[in-house]
Amino acid sequence: xxxxxxxxxxAAVAAGFAASVAEPALASLGGGGFLLSRPPDGPERxxxxxxxxxxxxxxxxxxxxxxxxxxxxxxGADQVFSAGWASVxxxxxxxxWLHASRTLGRLPLEQVVAPAARLARAGAVLDEAQAxxxxxxxxxxxLTEEGRSVFAPDGRLLGVGxxxxxxRLADVLDDVARxxxxxxxxxxxxxxxxxxxxxxxxxxxxxxxxxxxxREPLRSSYRGAQLLTNAPPSFxxxxxxxxxxxxxxxxxxxxSPASLVRLADALTRMSERHVAGPQxxxxxxxxxxxxxxxxLAAMTLSNGSCSGVFVPGTGVQLNNVMGEADLHPRGFAPTxxxxxxxxxxxxxxxxxxxxxxxALGSGGSERxxxxxxxxxxxxxxxxxxxxxxxxxxxxxWDRRVLQVEPGLPAGALAALRAGxxxxxWPARDLYFGxxxxxxxxxxxxxxxxxxxxxxxxxxxxxxx
Length: 464
Hints:
About 30% of the residues lie in helices and about 20% in strands.
């Protein structure tokens, strides 16, 4: 998109459509997300296209099928996830990407959507990271015949080097590109058919009433740097801002054991401000873009941990956000239809005192807040390079144990263990999120860093 003359939003939206094919365990037209953009010559814009609670047009108290428990087997433990039609919230990604393209993009929609349609039809080859996610979530992904036709077309789960093909999704993307599908409401009849068969709350009326919300970004400053991030009703950005305000009243991080203890204390209090549910690896992905004019876009997407159910006949897998315990910390009590669900997703824009502008964000469920805080603090406190800030060992307080990546000095670990339980991981891990970031310095130099923890890729496109 950048080579074709598109701006940062064009590139981000195209990446979202492509991710629905190439990262099928993380992104979908049936999920939700947020886009924070800063045009080179206009105000910042925050688009909230996260999911709504379903049930519009249904009688109050209408029954829903039970959540379907599915056991996901992690290397160190088993965890029960909630999937099935009862877990589906009203999708927002398709409406959000179309809104962003129409109001902030530069290229024709057909050009933005075409690469994803080609991928869906020809196939997106699985790398090790994506294949591992399919293995992790296979009991969810293979729940239905639609899922098996995409992820196990020959009766076995696709593996590394094999291509995921989704021709039905390609047809939907073609319809989006030519303008015959202008939002998820265009799939409403098929959605209603699937929901009716399952007795689910979500339906065509939900899709028709869904609206992208433009919000004022949450603004803050930290040691002379200006920060913009996701705003309520989502909670990730507010938690990060509160932790930065706490750190700002203390000495800068300098790599000493004492400064790491201060960071750990801030992470602890940040986590305690949010009553979290069970820990898990969630299906979230992020893209950051800077264009030749200096425009920035930070977009975070999620399909939850996938519901395993599809809009019939479309190849579109739906989210399971109504079954995500960490987004419903007080339990799965009925939520009023149309309520925008809160999220930990924290797309962020940062301008440091030297004029460098950075877009960043992360996947990782409740670890998003810790990943973003650690990266921002490293960039501002330690004046680290973008690559070093992303690669630096991270900490996360899980409300019981301080989880620590390897690489900290022995003295720092000893200081962290004073007064708290610490678990040092043997290697960097996707548990700690994936901060994908780009920056543009005051003299126009561009840097792009993909987090290796989540097989991230950073690419600088040279001008023609």
